[in-house]
Specification:
Structural class: alpha/beta
Low-confidence stretches: 1-21
Radius of gyration: 29 Å
Strand content: 5-15%
Number of helices: 19
Order of helices and strands: HHEHEHEHEHEHEHHEHEHHHHHHHHH
């Protein structure tokens, strides 16, 4: 008891509220909206959230459309139990349950609106005592703010929803087209502690309002969660309308805590690349608001030239870009494994060149030995994070995709190749790739493939193919279809 008194006394003497002693991880949680990452009520949403580095997800209730009730799998206790088990096993929390169907459906035209909301509350209970529900008013349009009869109906229904939420120990966060002043007035009209604002940065930006000032005016107690993203255009890290440091400073000063969910902010040039878009946005939020996971694999960059390290990381990132995992914790580990392989190769060849001055034969033998011993460790390290087919993609990127380019060219040049001949060509090209991965330069990598291409040509000649004629006919076909040789 004496220890507790001492802790409390020290907090009071510091002049800071006890809330400020919360760590960033306890104070802010970062998640994604499952319907936006194409995993609406799909079991895979939890593993995806884990891969993206999230603390949790905002789970949707399922489609609504012209249905009477949400298309909600969690109404089945067995499904709900399975989803809850998988989420718990991955340490992924469900920060909120969304009724996104009301983005398109008008709340005032649903006579069973309370039944829909109660279905949401039941789901919240099944998924682990979730406290916050999301209710967008998009389906009501924007005119209701000044259309008094409709506004009155919305207020009446939200009051009923709020009181139902309060009885269940929950809060329904509404998404409105209003600024802080308008939301405060609306909340005053609703008169229910069960209703709060599910704050949305996108709305504020689109209206040209100041997010920091608006959040502060609205007040911490009126914000139950935040959709921390803009419309699809740029990632959060590249969006001039987003100032994460300022937003965090504002929320810190407001003593706010809660969930930040990424809804959009996808790069329009790769809008369907879920892992790249949401991985980048989650990372940006966690680096500012929360602690981003430290990679398990350490980058072996100590004592190396900074520009050289930057070049190697860029080279390694080409592989994680190809896999779509660059901005995820897994991607950072894979990136470091690849970069470390490049560093290792550089060290081996540098040591060889140094030893050559003394004993050239010993230098080459020692180099070959170290390359051989370290070669299989690379596959082993990658296999901790990647499936075999993805490891092959990494190797293809590291060898300029020569396997595919050469194999496709051979098949196009000789359409009559038999299945076993195609298999042999591919096997040799992959064998060449294993050697090329360890080559010291781009030139040496291509030299390795050159030797194997010669082996393939000899093989095909022995099989009766006239490669000169096959090549000439191939060139004609390329020209005929408008291609260039």
């Amino acid at each position: 008891m004496r220890i507790i008194r001492i802790i409390l006394l020290s907090v009071l003497m510091s002049g800071m509220p006890f809330f400020h002693t919360l760590s960033a991880q306890e104070r802010y949680q970062v998640g994604v909206c499952d319907w936006m990452v194409l995993k609406r009520q799909k079991l895979g949403e939890f593993q995806l959230a884990k891969d993206l580095g999230c603390d949790g997800v905002e789970m949707d209730m399922g489609g609504l459309g012209q249905r009477e009730m949400f298309d909600n799998k969690m109404r089945n206790p067995m499904d709900a139990a399975l989803f809850k088990h998988v989420a718990d096993s991955l340490d992924i929390r469900i920060g909120a349950i969304a009724m996104s169907g009301f983005y398109a459906q008008d709340l005032t035209k649903r006579d069973n609106y309370l039944a829909l909301v109660e279905d949401c509350f039941d789901t919240m209970d099944r998924m682990g005592e979730v406290k916050v529900a999301f209710l967008p008013l998009g389906g009501c349009g924007n005119s209701w703010a000044t259309d008094m009869p409709k506004r009155k109906e919305i207020v009446s229904r939200l009051h009923a929803i709020g009181e139902a939420a309060k009885k269940r120990g929950k809060v329904v966060g509404i998404d409105t087209p209003l600024d802080a002043k308008g939301n405060l007035k609306l909340l005053k009209e609703i008169k229910s502690e069960g209703i709060a604002i599910f704050y949305k940065w996108q709305t504020i930006i689109e209206n040209g309002w100041d997010i920091a000032k608006d959040m502060k005016k609205l007040g911490a107690k009126n914000i139950c969660a935040i959709h921390a993203s803009n419309t699809d255009s740029l990632w959060l890290s590249k969006d001039p309308a987003i100032n994460l440091q300022l937003f965090k400073k504002t929320l810190d000063e407001m003593n706010w805590s809660g969930w930040l969910f990424v809804e959009r902010s996808r790069d329009v040039k790769m809008v369907h690349n879920v892992r790249m878009n949401y991985g980048n946005n989650v990372r940006s939020l966690k680096e500012v608001f929360n602690s981003y996971p430290t990679p398990v694999v350490k980058l072996d960059s100590e004592g190396r030239d900074e520009k050289y390290v930057e070049t190697i990381i860029g080279r390694a990132r080409k592989a994680t870009d190809e896999l779509g995992i660059t901005w995820t914790p897994m991607g950072e580990n894979v990136q470091n494994i690849i970069a470390n392989r490049y560093f290792k190769l550089n060290d081996i060849y540098a040591e060889r060149d140094s030893l050559k001055k003394v004993d050239k034969k010993l230098a080459e033998a020692q180099c070959d030995s170290k390359l051989y011993r370290s070669h299989f460790a690379f596959d082993s390290d990658l296999s901790k994070y990647l499936k075999p087919q993805d490891i092959e993609k990494v190797k293809d990127v590291m060898t300029y995709n020569v396997v595919k380019v050469t194999y496709d060219a051979q098949c196009d040049m000789i359409p009559s190749l038999k299945a076993e001949e195609k298999a042999q060509i591919l096997a040799w090209l992959k064998e060449a790739r294993e050697l090329a991965i360890d080559a010291e330069s781009s030139k040496k990598k291509h030299e390795v493939f050159g030797k194997y291409k010669g082996r393939i040509n000899n093989y095909l000649s022995k099989r009766g193919y006239d490669l000169t004629k096959e090549r000439e006919a191939w060139y004609e076909r390329i020209k005929a279809r408008g291609g260039e040789i």
